[in-house]
Fold this protein.
Amino acid sequence: MDALIQPLADAIYAERVKRARNAPSSQKMGWGPELFEEACVRMRMGIRHQFPEAGPADVERILLERLDRLRRVHEHSIYSSATRQ
């Protein structure tokens, strides 16, 4: 089944990339908040999976801790992109 699905998935991905590249800059800027919210939703799901006993307040606290850690790492240049020179 994967052999049938993979070419379709690749074609869908290629089309999405093509549309994104052709989108005007103003539209691309608007995607930032949407992408961030989607990332937060996925992080919350991961936290709930990692800590099934955590309540909603606990999940938000852990999410904020993780986002803060990512911000601190970025600000201290601990992480650097492979394309950076």
Observations:
- The helical segments are 2-22, 25-50, 56-75.
- The chain has a mean pLDDT of 88.
- DSSP finds three helices and no strands in the chain.
